Amino acid sequence: MPSSRTRHNRGPAAASDNRAAVLAAARSLFADQGYQVPLNAIARAAGVGQGVLYRHFPTRLDLAFAVFEENFAELEALAADSGPEGFGRLWRRLVEMTVAEAAFVEMVVDARRALPDYDGPRRLAALLEEPLRRAREAGSAPATADPRDVLTAVRMVYGVTVTEPDRDHTRAAVERALGLLPRWFPPIPEGG
């Protein structure tokens, strides 16, 4: 007599749950091990076979785009904040994401190499335009500041993040590096 505890293949009914599990596992492993984490490790952590992972995400970039689209959506929502602290909140979150998820930057670099039409860097620069303009008008950013300055600072944060030998000191190393920038970059709060 078969056991009632036997797992049944739910087939297409499990597709949505499987996709969500793959995305959650990928976000966690990208953050913990970097963008080049083996895809079979992501499938294993999601509790699915590699075939399921590839059915949903045929390439590493497809998976990374899906994982990090949430990042872009969050940044776009912050960029829409028209309050006086809008740029500061956007900047702090961008730094947080870069420290916590360096794989996000690695994905952008890989996409630029692999896909000539990839618009991620332009999209990021465009979402910085309006908040930075408001910061300039409020006097909290120099009149000459533009999104390229912010993106250069993000690359600096990324470089410090991935080269800090002691992961427990990454945030402090990023703070030291940011201290070298002009004071118009809003400070990153302790623990934030």
From TrEMBL:
Query: Which sequence positions fall in the DNA-binding region?
Result: 38-57
Keyword Secreted appears in the UniProt entry: no
Keyword Transcription regulation found: yes
User: What UniProt keywords apply to this chain's record, in alphabetical order?
Assistant: DNA-binding, Transcription, Transcription regulation
Q: Which InterPro entries match?
A: Homeodomain-like_sf, HTH-type_TetR-like_transc_reg, HTH_TetR
In this chain the HTH tetR-type domain maps to 16-75
The protein here is known as Helix-turn-helix domain-containing protein
Which organism's genome codes for this protein?
A: Nocardiopsis lambiniae
Taxonomically, what lineage is the organism? Answer: Bacteria, Bacillati, Actinomycetota, Actinomycetes, Streptosporangiales
